[in-house]
Amino acid sequence: MPIKQSICYPMFQRPGITLDTVAATAAEIGYAAIELWGRGEDFEEVVATARRHNLTVASMVGHASLPDGLNKRSNHARIEAELRTSIDIAAHHGIPGVICFSGNRQPHMSEIEAIDATADGLRLIAPYAEQKGVNLNIELLNSKVDHPGYQCDHTAWGVAVCEKVNSPRVKLLYDIYHMQIMEGDVIRTIRENIKWIGHFHTAGNPGRNDLDDTQEMNYAGICKAIAQTGYDLYVGHEFRPLGDTLAALRSAFDVCNQ
Fold first, then answer.
1. pLDDT digits over 208-248, tens only?
2. Is 3.20.20.150 the CATH number for 4-256?
3. Does 1 have pLDDT greater than 90?
4. For residue range 160-216, what is the model confidence (pLDDT) as tens digits?
5. In angstroms, what CA-CA distances link 20 with 28, 53, 109, 247?
6. What is the Cα–Cα distance from 197 to 220, expressed in whole angstroms?
7. Whether the predicted pLDDT of 38 surpasses 90
8. 23, 101, 126, 140: least buried by Cβ within 10 Å?
């Protein structure tokens, strides 16, 4: 079965192109889903538009503050409450996963201490996620270019957190663009850690733009490798199109339709 593709709608918002046009075009091309980041005033509109075009909503952000996250124990009560609300919303709308963040590295905290703190924060809410059938996807981000100081910046770090929590609902958002910057060896890493991956994001590197021949990754090969693992969730496109938005949607789909 080909992978199920989705689009991160905020990356494809352009003047003169309506949400309905983006969703209708995505559905016509063959996309399975749309994604959004926050729960802002357009949340219900995006969900309703997706449904109107038979698209799933594949992912949403689960708690506030990317740099100030789960590796700080003082944040655990706040994040637990925010995640509980997000899980309820996701369950109500059939959204399979919400995004979580480690936060930035803290002075005088070792990597092991930070892994333990992040895992302890997720343990507080994991049973509720299990009850509701919603994944908590810890996002892997690069700390070299886009998110200086971010702690969950290598696959092994995120896997260590997942192993400590040991919940079927605590997984990773493996962002291919970010992990190419930090560690490369993308296909091997995906194959070895697929049991811990609950969502994927794409973008070309360098530049976080289209999945074309101006960037360094073979996305057809990467997506074929993902499909071969039996992964059955979503691969979401989170790149900034340099040219025509709707043409970029079609091109990305064709590259990744493996």
1. 999 999 999 999 999 999 999 999 999 999 999 999 999 99
2. yes
3. no
4. 999 999 999 999 999 999 999 999 999 999 999 999 999 999 999 999 999 999 999
5. 12, 9, 47, 16
6. 19
7. no
8. 126
Torsion-angle region of 15 (φ positive above 0: left; ψ -120 to 50: alpha; else: beta): beta
Q: Is the pLDDT of residue 40 over 80?
A: no
**Nearest 10 degrees: Cα torsion 21, 22, 28, 34:** -140
The CA–CA distances, whole Å, from 169 to 39, 70, 214, 251 equal 21, 16, 37, 32
Full-model pTM: 0.97
Residues 6 or more apart whose CB falls under 8 angstroms from that of 136 comprise: 62, 83, 97, 98, 100, 122, 125, 126, 129, 167, 169, 170, 171, 198
The CA-atom distances, in angstroms, between 31 and each of 34, 110, 111, 145 are 8, 42, 39, 29
Torsion of CA 246, 249, 254, 258, to 10 degrees: -160
Percent of the chain scoring above 70 in pLDDT: 100
Q: What's the distance, Cα to Cα, between the start and end of the chain in Å?
A: 8
Assigned token pair, 174:
């493996």
Rounded Cα distance between 241 and 56, Å, is: 22
Give the C-alpha separation, 83 to 128, whole Å.
9
* Mean pLDDT, residues 79-98: 98
User: Which residue matches tokens 């609902």?
Assistant: 169
The pLDDT score that the predictor gives to residue 158 is: 98
